[in-house]
């Protein structure tokens, strides 16, 4: 029997090996997809290069002699090399490695297969180096995607690995569809048309969580904020009619389909039923009801004065007022007293000095 130490080391080793194998499997699946992507880039760039060089020639010297002696430029090895040189960015290792590894296949296709197999992607990526599959197929053996290669995922999703030698063929459904075959509808949608090979999911009425048709009477279940009426149709719940109101005292409630919102009352209101100064339940301090709306109180025009100090004046503000000392007066010890002018202050100081001198004599 193994001791505790060797057992732990063995378990750790097995765990490490398992993790490595898992990473390798994940990377290999990723590589199978990326290989096809790289091959697609190469063949697309080859076709662009073919178009780019379509009207070129040997580019110098006696072109007629060169074409007679070295074969026509359009089918020449020189043109092939010019195209191949532009297949990859210099920074793309995968692309350059694939081109270098299979350069002889480009020569074979160029000189021997191009006429019979004009689709380079199909001949090179799918049939020759076998890193891609035809559209609608996936995996090492190019099996048909769910729903068939003509219409993967029944036209309502994407097949994992579609067109590559990777992936597992499972469907990632488009919005509003779900299920292994992307034929079922998510909540909020219903099957307008449905058979074994086709499904059309249409949105329910806005009041329905689930439904069997397009109207609010076809709801299986109402959404939050909606409720069944006497005709078993989903109708809006008016949260604003509830007592007490769901909003704060300085707010009014605004009902919306399936919900509500709370809005701030006008500043002239102390509680309100809607927007504006004419919807106040009570006027705020400093305001009064005038012909159905809250207006500012001019405190300075009241019969009883609000600024009661001697030599004090009143200025009305929106919703309030301010008391201040009249011109020529200033506030001292909560009283409005006359300001002492600078000249009078100097005369007073001179008088005090003279009086003090006389006293000393």
Could you explain the architecture of this structure?
This protein is of the alpha+beta class. It is 32% helix and 22% strand. The chain has 7 helices and 20 strands. The chain has a two-stranded antiparallel ribbon with strand order 1-2. A two-stranded antiparallel sheet has the order 3-4. It has a two-stranded antiparallel ribbon with strand order 5-6. β7 (189-194) and β8 (199-203) form a beta hairpin. α1 (4-52) packs across α3 (77-85), α1 (4-52) crosses α4 and α1 (4-52) runs antiparallel to α6 (120-128). The longest helix has 49 residues, at 4-52. The protein is elongated. Residues 16-29 have low confidence and may be disordered. It is found in: Endoplasmic reticulum.
Which H/E pattern describes the elements?
HHHHHHEEEEEEEEEEEEEEEEEEEEH
Number of helices: 7
CA radius of gyration: 45 Å
**Low-pLDDT ranges:** 16-29
How far the N terminus sits from the C terminus, by CA atoms, comes to: 127 Å
Q: What is the strand content? A: 15-25%
What level of helicity do the residues show?
25-40%
- The tally of beta strands, per DSSP, is 20
Derived from helix and strand composition plus strand pairing, the structural class reads alpha+beta
General form: elongated
Largest sheet: 2 strands, antiparallel
What average pLDDT do the residues reach?
A: 86
Signal peptide: 1-28
Domain EGF-like: 141-183, 296-337
InterPro entries: DUF3456 (IPR021852), EGF (IPR000742), EGF-like_Ca-bd_dom (IPR001881), EGF-type_Asp/Asn_hydroxyl_site (IPR000152), EGF_Ca-bd_CS (IPR018097), Furin_repeat (IPR006212), Growth_fac_rcpt_cys_sf (IPR009030), LE_dom (IPR002049)
Protein name: EGF-like domain-containing protein
